[in-house]
Amino acid sequence: xxxxxxxxxxxxxxxxxxxxxxxxxxxxxxxxxxxxxxxxxxxxxxxxxxxxxxxxxxxxxxxxxxxxxxxxxxxxxxxxxxxxxxxxxxxxxxxxxxxxxxxxxxxxxxx
Length: 111
What we know:
Blueprint: H1 4-42, H2 52-88, H3 103-110
């Protein structure tokens, strides 16, 4: 069984990793929002605005990419949680459920 110092160090490491990741994500989203707002307000003359059909296609692709990411990460999270429970209970770990091929990997394989 792990001693208190080991558990405390693990908790500190996880907290630090989480905070660092949140800061990086915040900065990324802040930059994305700023750049998108500037482009929208400036009405970039070098690139024509997308047609309604093109805008719709981009929105569908965005939603599919988000859905794919949520499915992949949700399955990975559930597998990790099941493995943690098995470890905590001293059970033999079952093999993880394989993640479905994402749209990105499927597209690369076809190319």
